[in-house]
Write a structure and sequence with these properties.
Elements: E1 2-9, H1 11-15, H2 19-28, E2 32-39, H3 43-49, H4 59-66, E3 71-79, H5 82-90, H6 103-107, E4 116-118, H7 122-132
Active site: 117
Catalytic activity: a 2'-deoxyribonucleoside 5'-diphosphate + ATP = a 2'-deoxyribonucleoside 5'-triphosphate + ADP
Domain Nucleoside diphosphate kinase-like: 2-136
Length: 136
């Protein structure tokens, strides 16, 4: 059985030229990249993606960060619970506490700019893939 999840390489990852490094980590784990696109996110897409955060105090800063430059949106496919495998590879949200060997632990610097987003459940993955890649 295979499973898909959404991964976003955030503007800081693109700016720091870490796209190849992060993608190679997923490929080394034998996960497949089934869709990938460099894109500039607009306010509407971000509102749909972060709908649970609309109206919260940090929302405007989050939108400003995520729209300041391009992101790489990807659909990653692997065995059952791929979303969970990807989340473990990403590491803790705060790079200062992320374990060495994780993307954030090895490459992250700031809590507010933590390089990568990965869906947090199978249901979230399905919803988020529908936002970014509606034809999959």
């Amino acid at each position: 059985m295979s499973d898909r999840t959404l991964v976003l390489l955030k503007p800081d990852a693109v700016e720091r030229k870490l796209v190849g490094e992060v993608v190679s980590r997923f490929e080394a784990k034998n996960l497949d990249i089934v869709a990938m696109e460099l894109r500039q996110l607009d306010a509407d897409t971000l509102a749909r993606h972060y709908e649970e955060h609309v109206g919260k105090g940090f929302y405007d800063d989050l939108v400003a960060f995520m729209s300041r430059g391009p992101v790489v949106a990807m659909v990653v496919e692997g065995p059952e619970d791929t979303w969970e495998v990807v989340r473990k590879m990403m590491g803790a949200t705060n790079p200062r506490t992320a374990e060495p060997g994780t993307i954030r632990g090895d490459l992250g610097i700031l809590f507010t700019e933590n390089l990568v987003h990965g869906s947090d459940s199978l249901a979230s993955a399905e919803r988020e893939i529908g936002i970014f890649f509606p034809n999959l």
